[in-house]
Model the fold of this input.
Amino acid sequence: MPLPADIGLRDGRHVMEVPFRALLLPANGLPGHRVGPALERFQMRLAERTGNEWRSDGNAEEVKLFIRWERTGRLVLGEDETYSLTITPARVEVQATTDLGILRGLSTLYQCLAFDGGEWYFPALVVKDQPRFPWRGLLLDVCRHWMPRDVVLRQLEGMELVKMNVLHLHLTEDQGFRVESKIFPELHRSGSNGQFFTQEDVRYIIEEADKRGIRVIPEFDLPGHATSWFVSHPELASAPGPYAIEKRFGVIDPTFDPTREEVYLFLDRFLGEMAALFPDAYMHIGGDENNGKQWAANLAIQAFMKERGLKDAHDLQAYFNGRLYEILTRHGKRMIGWDEIAEGALPQDVTIQSWRGKEGLISAARAGRDVVLSNGWYIDLCQPTAYHYANDPLPDDIGLSPIERKRVLGGEATMWSELVNARNVDTRIWPRTAAIAERLWSPAHVKDVQDLFLRLEQVTGQLENVGLRHRSAQMELLRLFAGTEEVDALKRYVDLLSPVQGYQRHSIRPGGYSTATPLTRLVDAAVPDPLAANRFEQIVDEYLRTRDRTKLDATLDSWGAAVGELLGRTEITSRMSVAEQQQLLAFSELVTRLGPGRSDPNTRPPSLDDAALLAQARPKEAEVVLAVLPAIERLLKAREP
Amino acid sequence: MPLPADIGLRDGRHVMEVPFRALLLPANGLPGHRVGPALERFQMRLAERTGNEWRSDGNAEEVKLFIRWERTGRLVLGEDETYSLTITPARVEVQATTDLGILRGLSTLYQCLAFDGGEWYFPALVVKDQPRFPWRGLLLDVCRHWMPRDVVLRQLEGMELVKMNVLHLHLTEDQGFRVESKIFPELHRSGSNGQFFTQEDVRYIIEEADKRGIRVIPEFDLPGHATSWFVSHPELASAPGPYAIEKRFGVIDPTFDPTREEVYLFLDRFLGEMAALFPDAYMHIGGDENNGKQWAANLAIQAFMKERGLKDAHDLQAYFNGRLYEILTRHGKRMIGWDEIAEGALPQDVTIQSWRGKEGLISAARAGRDVVLSNGWYIDLCQPTAYHYANDPLPDDIGLSPIERKRVLGGEATMWSELVNARNVDTRIWPRTAAIAERLWSPAHVKDVQDLFLRLEQVTGQLENVGLRHRSAQMELLRLFAGTEEVDALKRYVDLLSPVQGYQRHSIRPGGYSTATPLTRLVDAAVPDPLAANRFEQIVDEYLRTRDRTKLDATLDSWGAAVGELLGRTEITSRMSVAEQQQLLAFSELVTRLGPGRSDPNTRPPSLDDAALLAQARPKEAEVVLAVLPAIERLLKAREP
Done:
């Protein structure tokens, strides 16, 4: 996963023998800096799964894995990532034009490793593969909640496994300025509560990303989302200040003053420093959600606008963006920004990241601009995996010409961090982002959702094995919440929950969320669209098709047992909120009637008339929904006369 | 935990209301750099457990927590760490001479937080507390297996919770040179496979340790254990080389050449650089396990010894240590080293770290030297917690005078890393090291093992809550081993296993261990002296006392169920080695006879005559032992006529 473009299974298998010796065969004799470390990672991971020592010195005849490539790839948009993988009983061969292709091939090979109870092997096959889109990214917001270096580094392991190639770091926000400036150290010192990447951290992240064929694109969000800059530099803002690091979330007023030359001198120096620190050709300037309030309230700014004939905040922001464009161009960077920057008259070579809807993507491509899709991939909103998976940047009927279609470079999953922190962020990214990675890599016709889920069940374990914490973090939160190590029943229940979708949590919680709100409730341990819910959907489908109750009853019984056990654990349930308790009780009743109580004549079977019961299972205040409720409702509906 | 020196429970409780506002009251008006961040950690952790926002702006009358201290403590040996903690229904007060005392008091307060099903509260009490020993350390070997920065940082959280105050970093070894040198960058570049702390990493670790009142002592192991230095500097060794980073473990030959002045010039520059990087007054020069082979084989060295009248390798090493002593003194550092350095005629102000036995400690103290105990606290050897707990550095009968007793500064748990890596190291350190921390902090009379275990059950959860991975890492390893998320039965079985003690694993594994051996077998997931085994000990005790089988049968039944389920999971058992399978089968048979089969007249009850069965449950090749076997044997013995 992602599913290769072309895969042909053959008879037989390649039994993995120890040592599984590899030979590097770069055509020009230069192995470069990527394949060696990648092979070490790969061999150690094989060793960790099989339990055998991963390498030993010995003779060259024993080579089983041949790795051939022509040249070291450049880490730029559109570089060749094609590869072919041939597994025969006698040998394994990965071939590619560039070392980037080799990395992609090794990820595929790693996923092919299997165990049949007797031996470890790779199935014989021939794969020819290349990406559908050249820009396959993950945005990580390290600002709202701080994400230390090791959080970022482990995302790289997951990205490599699913062949993503852009890490977009959202580095400045109202809630934090997260990168060290040596020219203006007051920025990170005053703007970050001590939580920021040093330049050494940044270089280390970039180096590790490069080794995995992943570009790192920094975002400095301008002119809004900028409170943290103004803590030390209130003079750059459009209102006098003073400013403090923002603790609450949302669209906040503080905005750069686009009318003063000092602002551009300052940004020129700062962005120049960052342009040297981040080697990628692109630099992201944000540009989203400026509410214009500070501009409207500032007489000098209003006068400036009048003088220049700028009729509204859009015009003024376009002017600001134009100045930024000059600065970035001077520092050798291509500009990328959110939808809003398309509103002005910027040159065509600005790239648009489309977050507000497909229209932004279409109009940008028609306007001759490159565009990257994020709308539909806001993984912070806890929407269903199938929804993200279906979100094709280039459906056949999109109405773009062949040339315009070329401008759609790919997309990015965006992990905004208002409601996740370093502890649980992995649970919101993985394994779901693998589905987005597949949408961006695999051919458009690969879209079978049930097949996707079968493969997600595999890949979620592999993602853990390479260092991600989506499973562990959930368990840690459950044990913290429950105050005990005995959380099996709670875990089986939480497996059926999902956080409410969209932005609802902000308005549900009394007083709203801030950076000081602990993220240790059930909703923080629940994962979006849990795999167990999808498994139940399939069981219900099968039951409705066959009317064979075996699996359905077994599942309902196991839920009944888990929920029954949980209800007996008052030291845990007493920690639940009233709404959480109400939801658990309603679910328990539903399950009892559907499951264990089904053969008890005294138990009234549930029906859709049980509106009250279903409503109780959906208390908004719990901030979680029962992810299996839609399937239960289908079940109830089918039982209606 | 550690149990305070003096604790008096009072009637009532302090109900924790939100916001739980604190007031800092430093006597001199200077809050310093420790208490503010400590309070933030403390309040966020309370918030994470209770689920409530941790701080809000409001009026000062609402203050509930008063924190008073006199001055900022110096991070030096023997600095005042006393504190008092008073909890009444109306208020909570932590008082101390230094801010270090405040940190210790906040750790106690954190551990006092309780939930009764209705409310969160602190029980009313008065604590007056101070450490028994001023040196309470954890040694972390980051060389044999590399431990990245985040591994070290999270140990600091655990150390703070249990009031340890020395982090001893073992930074150079045959298998790796783990710290950046700017003067001799070839050392870390050639000696580390790219895995080392940059100086920025070191400063960050030191800063975070300082905030927690923890000193950081670097160890540069000399003259042996030094292969990694010689990869770039073979000329410093006593044999010509070339040298490569060592992959295998044990006492290896390469040793510094103590006869050449260039060696001292080099070490002077390098240790001078490190003396500036590490602010602590102490520097550790290792000094252990030099086998003398390279010296014996080098004619020039032999000639040098003859010329100087040095009669053997001990004399030569003493000469070398004397030269190191001069270098360290010149750079303003006090020397500390392992037992062996006591063999020469070094000045009295050298501190001895005693690892080979209690005699070393006694003779050092008698010789007028300060001494730190590590013998008995080699946590890499997977010995019982009770053994470590009973290891008192200063028992009444040690035979030292009052002045000599004063020289016993405390001790260190040593986490050598031949057989642990960054993934599972937490499982070998925690929660056991909390018992060692208690031995070093609490009064000597605190030594009730069963009480210790009751408190360990609590503290293990708190250690996880502050960021340690001892529970998660085990589960990750089990899922990796089993290739599935469904590892409940496996986990319940592994809870009863413990790695073989001592150095046995090295000789058991065919071919031995090296840095290339994956640590992903059952033995790597098993924890030393698991809490479940201790629980069973108590159940057996109770049964033997009361002959009431209720709890015993329930436990045996649950084991029977777990093992039965595991035996049915062939996709898991097929991954076990033959020895692991044999052990599981033998245990299953024992449990069946003792437990579920007890009322079946066809099941022969087991007896001590079942030598074969018991032997099968102890296959050396499994590298794990059934930690519950001794209790089972007691049970069997008691049933004999």
The mean pLDDT of chain B is 94.
